[in-house]
Amino acid sequence: MAERVMLTGATGFLGSAIARALVAAGHEVRALTRAGTPREVLEGVPVQFIPGDLTDPASIAEAVRGCDAVIHCAADYRIFVPDPARMLAVNLAGTEAVMRAALAAGCRRVVHVSSVATLKPRADGTPATEADAATPEAAIGPYKRSKTLAERAVERLVADSGLPAVIVNPSTPIGPRDRRPTPTGRIILEAARGRMPAYVDTGLNLVHVEDVAAGCVVALTRGAVGERHILGGQDVPLGELLGHVAGLFGRRAPVRLPRAPLWPAALVAEGWARLSGREPMLTLDGLRMAGQHMYFASGKAAQVLGHQARPWQEGVAEAIAWFRDHGRLA
After folding, report:
1. Could you tell me what percentage of the chain is helix, strand and coil, using 3-state DSSP and rounding each to the nearest 5?
2. Which of 121, 123, 170, 275 is the most buried (most CB within 10 A)?
C-alpha cells in the first residue's frame, strides 16, 4: 500500500538510496532537508523537499504532519569530530525530536535507522548479533556513543509511550553516490587512487547500500517493534578489501602495520585536522576500533525482513565506478 513517508537524511549516501527504494515501491516521499544541502544524488527522483533541520523540532513537526510513516536515516557519521557536542545534538537530540514528532502526528510506523555501532563486537572474532548490545560508556568515540544513546532513547519511547518504531542496524554500506564520502567510502576512494600503501589489521562487514535501503523500506510493514534488525552483508578483513581494490588497478597489495607505532602519528594527524578543518585518515578512535574485528550476523533480518545481500565486491565496483564517473579518481 502506497503511503506518504517522511525521510530524514535523503540527500546523504544511504538516505538517497532509501528515497529511490521508496519511490520504486510506490510511496510518496517527503524529505526533511537543510537549506543549501546539495541534492544532485536525487536528481530526477520525485521527492518533495521540506526545509528543516534535526536541531529545529518545529521544522521536524511540520515535515511529519500528514505523513503515514517516518524513516529516520539522518546522522552525523564521522570518526573524528572537533566538537562532539554538535554530533550529540544531531544524533541524539535530533532522533528524539523526530520520534516525538512521529508520535504527535500519529504515524503508523517509524523506522529508526541505527547502526551496528550500537553493538559490541565479540572478542573472539565471531559475528555479533542483535543480542550484543553495547553500553554508551563502552562505545568508542563520539559517533558510536551518540548512536548508542539515540537507540536507547528510541527503545524508551517504544516502552513508555507506545512509539511504533522498528530499529534497523546497517553494518558498513558501500556502493554508488557516496558523495561526501563516508569513512569507508573514503578508504575505497583512497585505495583506488593508490594512496593506501599500508593498513592496520581489522575487519568490517560490508553490504551494498541498496540492499540496506531495501531492508529499511520493508521494515515499514514488517519487523518487530522496539527490536533491532542487523542489515549486513559479508565479513571482510580490511587487508582483503584493500588488496582487492589494488588488484583492480594492477597495483601491489598494501602492507600490514602494527598499531603501536601509529599512536603518535594519529595524535599529530588529529592536531593538524583541528587546525586545517580537514578530516584525518588516521585517528586515535580509528586505531582503538582497529583492535576489533567488526563482524556481524544478519540472520534475524533475513528471516523477518527477507534481507538479502549481494557480494561485497559488487558494492566496491559500483563505488569505484561512481567515483570515476564524477571525476573523483584524478
Report:
1. 45, 20, 40
2. 170
What is the rounded distance in angstroms from the CA atom of residue 227 to the CA atom of residue 206?
A: 22
Architecture of domain 4-175+205-235+295-313: 3-Layer(aba) Sandwich (3.40)
Averaged pLDDT for residues 130-137: 93
Which ranges of the chain does DSSP label H, i.e. alpha helix?
A: 13-24, 57-64, 84-88, 94-105, 141-161, 183-192, 209-218, 238-248, 263-276, 284-290, 299-305, 312-325
Report pLDDT digits (tens) over 228-271.
999 999 999 999 999 999 999 999 999 998 877 777 887 787 78
* 155 pLDDT higher than 80: yes
Buried b (16+ CB within 10 A) or exposed e, 239-269: bebbbbbbeeeebeebeeeeeeebeeebeeb
Rounded distance between C-alpha atoms, residue 41 and residue 11, angstroms: 7
Q: Give the residue carrying C-alpha cell 563505488.
A: 319
Q: How far is 118 from 76, CA to CA, in rounded Å?
A: 15
The whole-model pTM stands at 0.93
Question: For 63-98, how does the pLDDT look when each residue is reduced to its tens digit (9 = 90+)?
Answer: 999 999 999 999 988 877 878 888 899 999 999 999
Count how many Cα atoms sit within 13 Å of the Cα of residue 106 in the half-sphere of its side chain: 1
Domain ranges within the chain, ordered by starting residue: 4-175+205-235+295-313
